[in-house]
Amino acid sequence: MKTVKFVAYLFFRYYSTGPRKEIPYFSTVAALAVLFYIHLVQVLIIFNGMNLIPGKGDGSRIWEYFKMALFITPVFLLIMLFIRKPELQVMHYDDQKIKQGNINLVVYIILSFAFMIFLILLKKGKL
Description:
Layout: H1 2-15, H2 24-46, H3 61-82, H4 85-90, H5 95-123
């Protein structure tokens, strides 16, 4: 849990500046939820469970968005339960750890996407 909170701090620190500086906590929780769902999709691809994710395009666009929102909301709320805004606001790390953490986070996200693409291509028989 310590690592997840550190990653949340890195996102919170990043989103506290720039155009999203008004909503850094929401942006942080959303980023963590996206990372969780990237890994969920990877697991579902491995075990042929992609039909568990809503969004097959058989309904109206609004209905598809609603189903996806219902699918994402539990993880979003769970992250909000464990990672609180006041806790993120008081966290502090030295600059070297933050710099190394940012580099590691970017590499981790890139490798996660690359692994997901690799799994998709592997399952479709393109490799």
